[in-house]
Specification:
- The structure is a single chain.
- By secondary structure, the protein is mainly alpha-helical.
Length: about 200
């Protein structure tokens, strides 16, 4: 028997995955609606290329469905497992394309249509500047910074995803933030960040 789920359901990811493994296609749809945007955004932040990120997100979700029957509840959160898969897929793609720069796709306009054209252009410039600075970071620093400061994950979960110690996560995020600050320091006025002291 399948149960109806909507995107706002409070059923945990792990429970939805087990329900899917037992033949519940509604659980798969609910989990797909919940996780695909996060997986796509994470892949985009690591790669800086929307088409590549879509491919990675699709592959990561396919791997999740293949893993569903063998999923061992309690060992890892579904999101932790997915972030690790996405990171590994992104690293594989970057290694294959090493030597050339990854082109940035256009950043989509904000969902709120009430933003002025100037605000939209400024937000786009900020997003492009951040993405370009992220692209210049070493892979592990970029991954740690994105997981911590963009995805909002805690250091222990990042350590599990990256398979490193919490201290290594702290070091990577600290060095990554310093590098981002240095890369963006000369562009504060251009990007509309004015010191309000």
């Amino acid at each position: 028997m399948t149960m109806p789920f909507d995107a706002n359901d409070d059923v945990p990811d792990e429970a939805l995955l087990v329900l899917f493994a037992n033949g519940d296609s509604a659980a798969a749809r609910a989990l797909t609606r919940r996780l695909t945007p996060r997986v796509m955004a994470h892949a985009y932040r690591l790669l800086g290329n929307r088409a590549e990120a879509e491919d990675v997100a699709q592959e990561a979700m396919l791997r999740l469905w293949k893993q569903a029957r063998d999923w061992r509840q309690g060992e890892a959160k579904v999101t932790t497992w997915l972030y690790r898969v996405v990171a590994n897929l992104c690293i594989d793609r970057q290694r294959r394309t090493r030597g050339g720069s990854v082109a940035l796709d256009a950043i989509p306009e904000p969902a709120d249509g009430r933003a002025s054209a100037d605000e939209t252009l400024q937000e786009r410039a900020r997003a492009e500047a951040l993405q370009a600075a992220l692209n210049d970071l070493p892979e592990r620093q970029r991954q740690a910074v994105v997981l911590r400061h963009i995805e909002g994950l805690a250091n222990p979960e990042i350590a599990e995803i990256m398979e490193i110690t919490i201290e290594a996560v702290e070091s990577l995020t600290s060095r990554g933030k310093r590098a981002l600050s240095a890369a963006l320091a000369g562009r504060q006025e251009e990007l509309g960040y004015v010191d309000e002291r």
